[in-house]
Specification:
With 137 residues, this protein is an alpha+beta fold. It has a single domain, classed as Gcn5-related N-acetyltransferase (GNAT) (Aminopeptidase), CATH 3.40.630. It contains four helices and five strands; from the N terminus they run βααβββαβα. The protein has a five-stranded mixed β-sheet with strand order 1-2-3-4-5. A hairpin with a 4-residue loop joins strand 3 and strand 4. The protein is globular, with a radius of gyration of 15 Å.
Length: 137
């Protein structure tokens, strides 16, 4: 049985690093992480025994541009509905927050696109949209 709760909170810097490492993702220095977390529009964590075992954040301009980031669940807790519960809370926040003509985007990890499609996201390119693009500096 899952003994976790979904809480609107930021993870600690150490929890954030642990979560990103568990996904094989890189991360900047602790000062940059702290600033980034504080600048989140919204964040929820799956917490078990006082420790974040999952996270999902929203960043954006507080007007009409939003990006869902850091959807991570520790490997030992995956495939138990935690990621879905995190995304459901994020989507509820966005449904209550965004205005008409808002843009909500995310960058799915390779192979995870189907997970996000159940929340209404679609792959690009599509009939109306070109490829999503990025650069890493």
């Amino acid at each position: 049985m899952n003994n976790y709760i979904i809480v609107e909170k930021l993870p600690s810097v150490e929890e954030y690093i642990d979560l990103r490492e568990s996904a094989g993702w890189s991360y900047p220095n602790k000062e940059a992480i702290e600033k980034s977390l504080k600048n989140s529009n919204y964040c929820v964590c799956a917490v078990k025994d006082g420790t974040a075992i999952g996270i999902s954040r929203v960043v954006g301009d507080d007007s009409f541009i939003y990006l869902i980031v850091d959807v991570i669940v520790l490997p030992e807790y995956q495939n138990q509905g935690i990621g879905t519960a995190l995304m459901e809370r994020v989507m509820l926040y966005l449904e209550e927050t965004v205005q008409e003509y808002s843009s909500i985007t995310l960058l799915a990890a390779k192979g995870k696109e189907t997970f996000y499609e159940k929340f209404g996201f679609f792959k690009r390119p599509s009939g109306e949209y070109g490829h999503g693009m990025m650069v890493e500096l």
